[in-house]
Design brief:
pyruvate-formate lyase- activating enzyme, 8-stranded mixed β-sheet, alpha/beta
């Protein structure tokens, strides 16, 4: 059975890797770490090791068993391009994604440099999307590394949005997800930051998806921006064989 997801922009999650380390301010209140650490030390639990990085080769072929086509978020509980995930393991993940051609896979990373470094060694199947997280203006350069990857959809997750994304270049970006932070220590997103991103997406014909305002819980503030929901999805690029 697939791990159905409550994340609005996907349908299921697949975690052949779990655990991670913080790399930028958007990681400060990581929901995945909070969840995983609740179970640290409980024998036999999948998160017995808490949020320490762990590879799960026994999970690699899970998507091949899911017959109904799904949008699948890869590693909702980790980062596939974490420096301690070996290239040969990443290649195995990509091999499975290519064979599970009924699904669409969404990969999201904050490790933009390793993504760009390894991308030429990977097969970017037509059902694999790749995105980077950008939480404030300090990290808009992650989009430059993303543009180097020859994937059918390149996307940006501006969540949690912690400031305006001044200087963000949306050239060759197909989708932008934006949202505020949730949890007891959430840092509020300002409406002007979100409006600026939405307006730029509209002007530049980039699909815009507003996930949430955030608050103490993910649904606390609702999902409407200026009186409507924004649930746009991207159009896949046509890849030209080398």
């Amino acid at each position: 059975m697939a791990d159905n997801s409550a994340i609005e922009w996907t349908e299921a999650t697949w975690n052949p890797v779990t655990g991670c380390d913080k790399v930028s301010p958007g990681c400060a209140h990581c929901y995945a770490e909070t969840f995983a650490e609740r179970w640290r030390g409980i024998p036999g639990h999948p998160y017995e090791q808490g949020f320490d990085l762990r590879l799960w080769p026994q999970r690699l072929e899970q998507p091949l068993k899911w017959t109904r086509a799904r949008m699948i978020f890869v590693n909702s509980m980790s980062d596939l391009f974490h420096e301690d995930v070996p290239l040969d393991y990443i290649e195995q993940v990509f091999d499975v994604m290519g064979r599970a051609e009924q699904h669409t896979f969404q990969i999201l990373t904050k490790r933009h440099e390793r993504l760009a470094e390894l991308a030429p060694a990977l097969t970017w199947h037509p059902n694999v999307w790749i995105g980077v997280s950008i939480e404030n203006r300090r990290f808009v350069h992650r989009a430059d590394y993303l543009r180097e990857v020859d994937a059918v959809v390149r996307f940006i997750s501006a969540e949690p949005l912690l400031g305006p994304l001044d200087g963000l270049d949306l050239t060759e970006i197909g989708w932008l997800i934006a949202g505020g932070e949730s949890g007891p220590k959430h840092r509020p997103a300002k409406v002007e930051w979100l409006r600026e991103l939405r307006d730029r997406c509209v002007d530049e014909e980039v699909a815009f998806f507003f996930k949430q305002w955030g608050g103490r819980t993910p649904k606390a503030g609702g999902r409407e921006l200026d009186g409507r929901a924004w649930d746009e999805m991207p159009q896949a690029r046509v890849l030209v064989p080398a």
